[in-house]
Amino acid sequence: MTVDISNLIIATPVAVSSTNPVALELNGAEAIASYPSIVKVLSDGSIQFSAPTKGASSKSTRRTRCEWTETEDWTLASAQDHWNYQTMTLTKVNAAQKVVIAQMHVRGDDSPPVKVFWNKGNITLGFRRTYNQADPVNSTVLKGVPLGGRFIVSIHTTSAGVVNVTAKYNGVSGSSGNLQLDSTWAPRLFEFHGGIYNQVDYTDTTPADDGSICIISELSLIHR
């Protein structure tokens, strides 16, 4: 299946310019055309995302990413159901063996309600019931997803603020179960994210070849 990212924004590990070290964000089609070593269309229509650990990052972190983001924000009440569905393969992982692979993010805040990780071969979840909750509640969605294994990960959120994160690999499925967001999230604006976001800070001694690579072979974003 051909994965279309032309209507998405891609956060890259490439600096805006030689004088501005902040990570460049650009349209998916532009990212494919301008940075094929970072965002690449494969022969089967899949998209490969690459994020070396040492590279450009946002102003608030020292962690790199190659991550897609929706261009239009939404509220819980804007649709009955909100879906973020990816089929993906992590082909390389950083030295910490931990990357964010999917998020339900909130505009204007660094503490999203839902953050999904590939963490040393397991799919794990950080969930914040309340807006601006200091620390998420962490849980494991699915164990035994190896590097190189093709898996499915999805985030489903309802207009009532019920969240369910699921993952499937090699015929085995796992689920977070229904998690309830409280009313503090109701007025907030959200967008789904996906791809790879390294969960290790880079330093001057970070090896040049450290980093993460994923292949997204299916991507579906639905609000209805």
Quick summary:
The chain is mainly β and 224 residues long.
Provide a descriptive summary of the structure in words:
Keywords: Lyase. This is Alginate lyase. It comes from Pseudomonas monteilii. GO terms for molecular function: lyase activity. This protein is mainly β and 224 residues long. The chain has one domain: Jelly Rolls (Sandwich), CATH 2.60.120. It has one helix and 16 strands. The strands form two sheets. The protein has an eight-stranded antiparallel sheet. Strand 1 and strand 2 form a beta hairpin. The protein starts with 7 loop residues before the first strand and ends with a strand.
The average pLDDT value, as a whole number, equals: 96
User: Terminal Cα separation, in Å?
Assistant: 22 Å
Annotated CATH topology: Jelly Rolls
Label the overall shape: globular
Protein name: Alginate lyase
Organism: Pseudomonas monteilii
GO molecular function: lyase activity
InterPro entries: Alginate_lyase_2 (IPR014895), ConA-like_dom_sf (IPR013320)
